[in-house]
Amino acid sequence: MNLFEYEGKQLMRDYGIPVPESHLITCENEPAPMAYPFVLKAQVMTGGRGKAGGVKVCRDEADYRKYSHDILNMEIKGHKVHGLLAEQMMKAEKELYLSITLQGVAKPTLIASRMGGMDIEAVSRENPEEIIRMEIDPFTGLKGYQLKYLAKRLRVEDEKDLCSMVQKVQHAFFQAGALLVEINPLGLVDGKLVAMDSKFVIDGNARHMRAKMEELESGRQNLHAYKAPEKEATTITYVPLDGDLGLISDGAGTGMLTLDLLNDAGGHVASFCELGGMTSAEVMYRAMDLTLTGHPEVKGVIIVLIGGFNRMDNMACGITRYVEEHDVKIPIFTRMCGTMEEVGLETMKKAGMPTYSILTDTVKEFVEQVEGGAEKCQS
Fold first, then answer.
1. What is the DSSP string of 334-360?
2. What CATH fold (topology level) applies to the domain 1-19+91-229?
3. Tens of pLDDT, residues 208-242
4. Burial of residue 26, with CB atoms counted within 10 A of its CB: 0-12 exposed, 13-18 middle, 19 or more buried
5. Which pTM value belongs to this model?
Protein backbone atom coordinates (compact mmCIF):
# COMPACT_ATOMS: atom_id res chain seq x y z
CA MET A 1 0.00 0.00 0.00
CA ASN A 2 1.52 3.26 -1.17
CA LEU A 3 0.86 6.01 1.39
CA PHE A 4 0.23 9.70 0.90
CA GLU A 5 2.77 11.97 2.57
CA TYR A 6 0.36 12.89 5.38
CA GLU A 7 -0.23 9.19 6.13
CA GLY A 8 3.48 8.40 6.08
CA LYS A 9 4.24 11.25 8.45
CA GLN A 10 1.54 10.14 10.85
CA LEU A 11 3.13 6.69 10.95
CA MET A 12 6.50 8.33 11.50
CA ARG A 13 5.06 10.25 14.47
CA ASP A 14 3.75 6.96 15.84
CA TYR A 15 7.28 5.54 15.71
CA GLY A 16 8.87 8.62 17.29
CA ILE A 17 10.45 10.07 14.15
CA PRO A 18 10.53 13.90 14.34
CA VAL A 19 8.38 15.56 11.65
CA PRO A 20 7.18 19.17 11.20
CA GLU A 21 3.79 20.27 12.53
CA SER A 22 1.23 19.76 9.78
CA HIS A 23 -2.50 19.70 9.02
CA LEU A 24 -4.43 17.94 6.26
CA ILE A 25 -6.74 20.08 4.09
CA THR A 26 -9.33 18.41 1.87
CA CYS A 27 -11.25 21.37 0.41
CA GLU A 28 -10.25 24.88 -0.68
CA ASN A 29 -12.78 26.63 1.59
CA GLU A 30 -11.16 25.47 4.83
CA PRO A 31 -9.67 28.25 6.99
CA ALA A 32 -5.89 28.48 7.21
CA PRO A 33 -4.87 25.83 9.79
CA MET A 34 -1.81 27.62 11.18
CA ALA A 35 -0.10 30.99 11.33
CA TYR A 36 1.56 32.33 8.19
CA PRO A 37 3.94 31.62 6.61
CA PHE A 38 3.54 27.90 5.96
CA VAL A 39 4.09 25.46 3.10
CA LEU A 40 1.20 23.97 1.13
CA LYS A 41 2.02 20.56 -0.38
CA ALA A 42 -0.06 18.55 -2.87
CA GLN A 43 -1.04 15.08 -1.67
CA VAL A 44 -0.63 12.97 -4.78
CA MET A 45 0.66 9.49 -5.62
CA THR A 46 3.60 10.57 -7.78
CA GLY A 47 6.84 12.49 -7.59
CA GLY A 48 7.83 15.76 -9.20
CA ARG A 49 5.13 17.82 -7.52
CA GLY A 50 7.47 20.72 -6.76
CA LYS A 51 8.40 21.23 -10.40
CA ALA A 52 4.72 20.90 -11.34
CA GLY A 53 3.66 23.72 -9.00
CA GLY A 54 2.30 21.42 -6.32
CA VAL A 55 4.35 22.92 -3.47
CA LYS A 56 3.86 26.59 -2.56
CA VAL A 57 4.71 28.93 0.32
CA CYS A 58 1.66 30.76 1.72
CA ARG A 59 2.69 34.10 3.23
CA ASP A 60 -0.81 35.53 3.66
CA GLU A 61 -4.53 34.82 3.15
CA ALA A 62 -4.42 35.76 -0.53
CA ASP A 63 -1.65 33.22 -1.17
CA TYR A 64 -3.52 30.53 0.72
CA ARG A 65 -6.79 31.02 -1.16
CA LYS A 66 -5.10 31.07 -4.56
CA TYR A 67 -2.76 28.14 -4.00
CA SER A 68 -5.31 25.90 -2.26
CA HIS A 69 -7.67 26.37 -5.22
CA ASP A 70 -4.98 25.91 -7.86
CA ILE A 71 -3.31 22.86 -6.35
CA LEU A 72 -6.50 21.00 -5.44
CA ASN A 73 -7.69 21.31 -9.03
CA MET A 74 -4.50 20.24 -10.78
CA GLU A 75 -3.20 16.92 -12.03
CA ILE A 76 0.45 15.96 -11.69
CA LYS A 77 1.75 13.40 -14.19
CA GLY A 78 -1.81 12.25 -14.77
CA HIS A 79 -2.59 11.87 -11.05
CA LYS A 80 -5.30 13.90 -9.33
CA VAL A 81 -4.43 15.85 -6.20
CA HIS A 82 -6.51 14.50 -3.30
CA GLY A 83 -5.56 16.88 -0.53
CA LEU A 84 -3.14 19.49 0.77
CA LEU A 85 -0.68 19.22 3.62
CA ALA A 86 -0.18 22.56 5.35
CA GLU A 87 3.17 22.35 7.09
CA GLN A 88 5.24 24.67 9.21
CA MET A 89 8.18 26.24 7.41
CA MET A 90 11.58 25.00 8.44
CA LYS A 91 14.95 26.25 7.29
CA ALA A 92 17.35 23.36 7.04
CA GLU A 93 21.04 23.97 7.64
CA LYS A 94 21.77 20.73 5.79
CA GLU A 95 19.65 18.36 3.67
CA LEU A 96 20.39 14.62 3.66
CA TYR A 97 18.77 11.58 2.06
CA LEU A 98 17.82 8.47 4.04
CA SER A 99 15.80 5.40 3.13
CA ILE A 100 15.40 1.72 3.93
CA THR A 101 14.05 -0.40 1.12
CA LEU A 102 13.21 -3.93 0.03
CA GLN A 103 12.39 -2.83 -3.53
CA GLY A 104 14.79 -4.23 -6.10
CA VAL A 105 17.16 -5.69 -3.50
CA ALA A 106 17.63 -9.11 -1.90
CA LYS A 107 17.87 -7.86 1.70
CA PRO A 108 16.61 -4.77 3.55
CA THR A 109 19.02 -2.05 2.50
CA LEU A 110 19.74 1.39 3.93
CA ILE A 111 20.52 4.01 1.31
CA ALA A 112 21.83 7.41 2.37
CA SER A 113 23.49 10.46 0.90
CA ARG A 114 24.61 13.89 2.04
CA MET A 115 23.06 15.21 -1.19
CA GLY A 116 19.45 15.29 -0.01
CA GLY A 117 16.54 17.28 -1.42
CA MET A 118 17.41 16.02 -4.91
CA ASP A 119 16.31 13.17 -7.16
CA ILE A 120 18.26 10.30 -5.62
CA GLU A 121 18.41 8.46 -8.96
CA ALA A 122 20.04 11.52 -10.53
CA VAL A 123 22.56 11.61 -7.66
CA SER A 124 23.26 7.90 -8.21
CA ARG A 125 23.92 8.49 -11.91
CA GLU A 126 25.90 11.72 -11.66
CA ASN A 127 27.60 11.37 -8.26
CA PRO A 128 27.63 7.64 -7.45
CA GLU A 129 30.38 8.16 -4.87
CA GLU A 130 27.85 10.11 -2.77
CA ILE A 131 25.54 7.10 -2.36
CA ILE A 132 25.96 4.95 0.76
CA ARG A 133 24.40 1.47 0.79
CA MET A 134 24.30 -0.89 3.75
CA GLU A 135 22.53 -4.25 3.93
CA ILE A 136 20.59 -4.69 7.18
CA ASP A 137 20.41 -7.95 9.10
CA PRO A 138 16.69 -8.12 10.02
CA PHE A 139 17.54 -9.99 13.22
CA THR A 140 20.18 -7.64 14.60
CA GLY A 141 19.70 -4.39 12.68
CA LEU A 142 22.54 -2.04 11.82
CA LYS A 143 25.69 -2.48 13.91
CA GLY A 144 27.37 0.29 15.90
CA TYR A 145 30.36 0.47 13.55
CA GLN A 146 27.98 0.90 10.58
CA LEU A 147 26.27 3.84 12.27
CA LYS A 148 29.64 5.45 13.04
CA TYR A 149 30.69 5.04 9.42
CA LEU A 150 27.37 6.51 8.27
CA ALA A 151 27.79 9.60 10.48
CA LYS A 152 31.29 10.12 9.10
CA ARG A 153 30.21 9.80 5.46
CA LEU A 154 27.21 12.10 5.95
CA ARG A 155 29.39 14.60 7.83
CA VAL A 156 26.94 14.79 10.73
CA GLU A 157 28.48 16.18 13.90
CA ASP A 158 25.81 14.93 16.29
CA GLU A 159 26.41 11.21 15.88
CA LYS A 160 23.99 10.36 18.69
CA ASP A 161 21.12 12.20 16.99
CA LEU A 162 21.81 10.48 13.66
CA CYS A 163 21.97 7.06 15.31
CA SER A 164 18.66 7.74 17.05
CA MET A 165 17.03 8.80 13.78
CA VAL A 166 18.32 5.78 11.83
CA GLN A 167 17.26 3.36 14.56
CA LYS A 168 13.74 4.85 14.62
CA VAL A 169 13.44 4.61 10.84
CA GLN A 170 14.73 1.04 10.99
CA HIS A 171 12.19 0.20 13.72
CA ALA A 172 9.36 1.76 11.69
CA PHE A 173 10.41 -0.17 8.58
CA PHE A 174 10.31 -3.58 10.22
CA GLN A 175 7.35 -2.99 12.54
CA ALA A 176 5.14 -1.58 9.77
CA GLY A 177 5.97 -4.38 7.33
CA ALA A 178 7.29 -1.77 4.92
CA LEU A 179 8.77 -2.16 1.47
CA LEU A 180 10.09 1.39 1.56
CA VAL A 181 10.56 4.17 4.09
CA GLU A 182 12.17 7.20 2.47
CA ILE A 183 12.97 10.65 3.86
CA ASN A 184 14.08 13.20 1.29
CA PRO A 185 15.12 15.57 2.56
CA LEU A 186 16.16 14.64 6.05
CA GLY A 187 16.79 18.16 7.30
CA LEU A 188 19.13 19.40 9.97
CA VAL A 189 17.03 22.08 11.70
CA ASP A 190 18.42 23.94 14.71
CA GLY A 191 20.99 21.19 15.10
CA LYS A 192 18.45 18.32 15.10
CA LEU A 193 17.35 15.97 12.31
CA VAL A 194 13.75 16.24 11.07
CA ALA A 195 11.88 14.20 8.42
CA MET A 196 10.82 17.01 6.08
CA ASP A 197 9.23 14.67 3.52
CA SER A 198 7.94 11.12 3.62
CA LYS A 199 7.51 8.24 1.23
CA PHE A 200 6.11 5.11 2.86
CA VAL A 201 5.08 1.85 1.16
CA ILE A 202 3.56 -0.95 3.25
CA ASP A 203 3.62 -4.53 2.00
CA GLY A 204 0.00 -5.29 1.12
CA ASN A 205 0.57 -8.89 2.28
CA ALA A 206 1.65 -7.87 5.80
CA ARG A 207 -1.08 -9.54 7.87
CA HIS A 208 -0.31 -7.67 11.08
CA MET A 209 -0.88 -4.38 9.21
CA ARG A 210 -4.25 -5.25 7.68
CA ALA A 211 -6.26 -3.39 10.31
CA LYS A 212 -4.01 -0.34 9.91
CA MET A 213 -4.29 -0.42 6.13
CA GLU A 214 -8.07 -0.66 6.38
CA GLU A 215 -8.04 2.30 8.77
CA LEU A 216 -5.92 4.32 6.35
CA GLU A 217 -8.16 3.46 3.41
CA SER A 218 -11.24 4.40 5.43
CA GLY A 219 -9.69 7.77 6.26
CA ARG A 220 -9.12 8.45 2.57
CA GLN A 221 -12.86 8.63 1.93
CA ASN A 222 -12.75 12.24 3.17
CA LEU A 223 -10.13 13.27 0.62
CA HIS A 224 -10.79 15.51 -2.36
CA ALA A 225 -12.07 13.61 -5.46
CA TYR A 226 -10.81 10.30 -4.08
CA LYS A 227 -12.07 6.97 -5.37
CA ALA A 228 -11.05 3.81 -3.57
CA PRO A 229 -9.25 1.32 -5.83
CA GLU A 230 -11.21 -1.76 -6.74
CA LYS A 231 -10.22 -4.83 -4.79
CA GLU A 232 -8.37 -7.34 -6.91
CA ALA A 233 -9.90 -10.77 -7.38
CA THR A 234 -6.53 -11.95 -8.69
CA THR A 235 -3.10 -12.73 -7.30
CA ILE A 236 -1.54 -9.62 -8.86
CA THR A 237 1.01 -7.74 -6.76
CA TYR A 238 1.63 -4.17 -7.95
CA VAL A 239 4.42 -2.03 -6.48
CA PRO A 240 4.78 1.59 -7.68
CA LEU A 241 8.31 2.97 -8.00
CA ASP A 242 9.78 6.25 -9.30
CA GLY A 243 11.17 5.53 -12.77
CA ASP A 244 9.75 5.44 -16.29
CA LEU A 245 9.88 1.72 -17.26
CA GLY A 246 7.05 -0.72 -16.53
CA LEU A 247 7.92 -4.30 -15.52
CA ILE A 248 5.51 -7.25 -15.57
CA SER A 249 6.52 -10.81 -14.68
CA ASP A 250 4.74 -14.04 -13.80
CA GLY A 251 6.92 -14.78 -10.78
CA ALA A 252 8.69 -12.90 -8.02
CA GLY A 253 12.08 -14.52 -8.69
CA THR A 254 11.97 -13.76 -12.40
CA GLY A 255 10.75 -10.26 -11.70
CA MET A 256 13.50 -9.48 -9.17
CA LEU A 257 16.16 -10.81 -11.55
CA THR A 258 14.80 -8.61 -14.34
CA LEU A 259 14.63 -5.62 -12.00
CA ASP A 260 18.31 -6.07 -11.14
CA LEU A 261 19.21 -6.40 -14.83
CA LEU A 262 17.27 -3.24 -15.65
CA ASN A 263 19.04 -1.32 -12.90
CA ASP A 264 22.43 -2.62 -14.06
CA ALA A 265 21.64 -1.52 -17.63
CA GLY A 266 20.85 2.02 -16.45
CA GLY A 267 17.07 1.68 -16.51
CA HIS A 268 14.72 3.26 -13.97
CA VAL A 269 11.66 1.18 -13.14
CA ALA A 270 8.27 2.91 -12.68
CA SER A 271 6.43 -0.14 -11.33
CA PHE A 272 6.80 -3.84 -10.65
CA CYS A 273 3.74 -5.97 -11.41
CA GLU A 274 3.86 -9.67 -10.53
CA LEU A 275 1.04 -11.88 -11.82
CA GLY A 276 1.54 -14.65 -9.25
CA GLY A 277 -0.05 -18.11 -9.19
CA MET A 278 -2.30 -19.45 -11.92
CA THR A 279 -3.09 -16.66 -14.37
CA SER A 280 -5.23 -16.06 -17.45
CA ALA A 281 -5.63 -13.66 -20.35
CA GLU A 282 -7.84 -11.49 -18.10
CA VAL A 283 -5.14 -11.32 -15.40
CA MET A 284 -2.54 -10.34 -18.00
CA TYR A 285 -4.89 -7.67 -19.35
CA ARG A 286 -5.41 -6.30 -15.84
CA ALA A 287 -1.65 -6.23 -15.23
CA MET A 288 -1.21 -4.15 -18.39
CA ASP A 289 -3.95 -1.81 -17.18
CA LEU A 290 -2.37 -1.38 -13.73
CA THR A 291 0.99 -0.64 -15.33
CA LEU A 292 -0.18 1.85 -17.96
CA THR A 293 -3.53 3.46 -17.11
CA GLY A 294 -2.99 6.77 -15.33
CA HIS A 295 0.79 6.49 -15.62
CA PRO A 296 1.89 8.77 -18.48
CA GLU A 297 5.45 8.69 -17.11
CA VAL A 298 5.84 5.08 -18.33
CA LYS A 299 7.80 5.17 -21.59
CA GLY A 300 7.97 1.43 -22.21
CA VAL A 301 6.99 -1.95 -20.72
CA ILE A 302 9.04 -5.12 -20.48
CA ILE A 303 7.11 -8.37 -19.91
CA VAL A 304 8.97 -11.49 -18.76
CA LEU A 305 7.01 -14.76 -18.72
CA ILE A 306 8.12 -18.32 -17.98
CA GLY A 307 5.20 -20.69 -18.48
CA GLY A 308 5.05 -23.69 -16.23
CA PHE A 309 1.39 -23.95 -15.30
CA ASN A 310 0.56 -20.69 -17.08
CA ARG A 311 -0.10 -20.84 -20.81
CA MET A 312 1.72 -18.45 -23.11
CA ASP A 313 -1.18 -18.40 -25.59
CA ASN A 314 -3.39 -16.90 -22.86
CA MET A 315 -0.70 -14.40 -21.88
CA ALA A 316 -0.29 -13.30 -25.50
CA CYS A 317 -4.06 -12.84 -25.87
CA GLY A 318 -4.18 -10.59 -22.81
CA ILE A 319 -1.24 -8.48 -24.02
CA THR A 320 -2.39 -8.04 -27.61
CA ARG A 321 -6.02 -7.32 -26.66
CA TYR A 322 -4.96 -4.57 -24.26
CA VAL A 323 -2.58 -2.99 -26.79
CA GLU A 324 -5.26 -3.04 -29.49
CA GLU A 325 -8.10 -1.72 -27.32
CA HIS A 326 -6.01 1.07 -25.78
CA ASP A 327 -4.01 1.98 -28.90
CA VAL A 328 -0.72 1.63 -27.01
CA LYS A 329 2.09 3.51 -28.78
CA ILE A 330 5.02 2.94 -26.42
CA PRO A 331 7.49 0.04 -26.84
CA ILE A 332 6.39 -3.31 -25.42
CA PHE A 333 9.20 -5.87 -25.11
CA THR A 334 8.06 -9.42 -24.34
CA ARG A 335 10.12 -12.45 -23.46
CA MET A 336 8.00 -15.61 -23.16
CA CYS A 337 8.77 -19.32 -23.00
CA GLY A 338 7.11 -22.48 -21.74
CA THR A 339 3.65 -24.02 -22.07
CA MET A 340 1.96 -23.22 -25.42
CA GLU A 341 4.94 -21.02 -26.27
CA GLU A 342 4.62 -21.53 -30.05
CA VAL A 343 0.99 -20.41 -30.11
CA GLY A 344 1.75 -17.41 -27.91
CA LEU A 345 4.65 -16.31 -30.11
CA GLU A 346 2.49 -16.65 -33.22
CA THR A 347 -0.25 -14.51 -31.63
CA MET A 348 2.29 -11.82 -30.83
CA LYS A 349 3.73 -12.01 -34.36
CA LYS A 350 0.31 -11.60 -35.97
CA ALA A 351 -0.26 -8.50 -33.81
CA GLY A 352 3.04 -7.04 -35.03
CA MET A 353 4.60 -7.22 -31.58
CA PRO A 354 8.22 -8.39 -31.27
CA THR A 355 9.27 -11.12 -28.85
CA TYR A 356 12.70 -12.05 -27.53
CA SER A 357 14.34 -15.23 -26.28
CA ILE A 358 17.43 -14.20 -24.27
CA LEU A 359 16.57 -12.17 -21.16
CA THR A 360 19.86 -10.25 -20.87
CA ASP A 361 19.72 -9.17 -24.52
CA THR A 362 16.04 -8.24 -24.14
CA VAL A 363 16.76 -5.99 -21.17
CA LYS A 364 19.75 -4.34 -22.84
CA GLU A 365 17.88 -3.55 -26.06
CA PHE A 366 14.80 -2.40 -24.13
CA VAL A 367 16.73 0.10 -22.00
CA GLU A 368 18.75 1.36 -24.96
CA GLN A 369 15.63 1.98 -27.04
CA VAL A 370 13.33 3.44 -24.39
CA GLU A 371 15.78 5.46 -22.31
CA GLY A 372 17.41 6.61 -25.53
CA GLY A 373 14.17 8.36 -26.44
CA ALA A 374 13.14 6.16 -29.32
CA GLU A 375 9.47 5.44 -29.66
CA LYS A 376 8.15 2.31 -31.24
CA CYS A 377 4.55 2.11 -32.36
CA GLN A 378 2.51 -0.99 -31.68
CA SER A 379 -0.42 -1.81 -33.92
1. EEEEETTHHHHHHHHHHTT--EES-HH
2. D-amino Acid Aminotransferase; Chain A, domain 1 (3.30.470)
3. 999 999 999 999 999 999 987 665 456 788 888 87
4. middle
5. 0.68
